[in-house]
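Entry 12.
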Amino acid sequence: MENKLTKRIALFPGTFDPFTIGHASLVERGLNLVDEIIISIGINDKKNTYFSLEKRLEAIQELYKDEPRVQVRAYNSLTVDFAQQVHAGFILRGIRTVNDFEYEKNIADVNRMLSGIETFILFTEPKHTHISSSIVRELLRYGKDISPFIPKGMNLF
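Predicted 3D structure (tokens):
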């Protein structure tokens, strides 16, 4: 049995409303760096989500049902506290812009100060930089096809 202290686990936190091909790319690339990724859907009562928590959990779990190194969980706490709870030694984040970098750096610094947990950042692949969950939600509101922006096989409806 593998020791939890030596297993490299990364928490990939977000709202994932919805989970996009950009998110899937980060998971795929992150699996080259760690042994396991826990896709962690944060519960934030201040955010007005398009999809229910249950639908997001179910859709992402179904997407990764054949990938034993990926778990999908929901949490309702500080991300760093949840990371400690699930024995994650790392937090995985993706950035698309310079503004994303500044925001993520500040959070990473605070998380490291609070817990010692390191954040690693992967740059979004250029072909995905224009994709965000908020843009996909806007397309949905106007009845547009979102299939080019979500992973193949993801069932949101």
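Annotation: The two ends are 39 Å apart (CA to CA). Residues 9-145 form a domain with the Rossmann fold fold (CATH 3.40.50.620).
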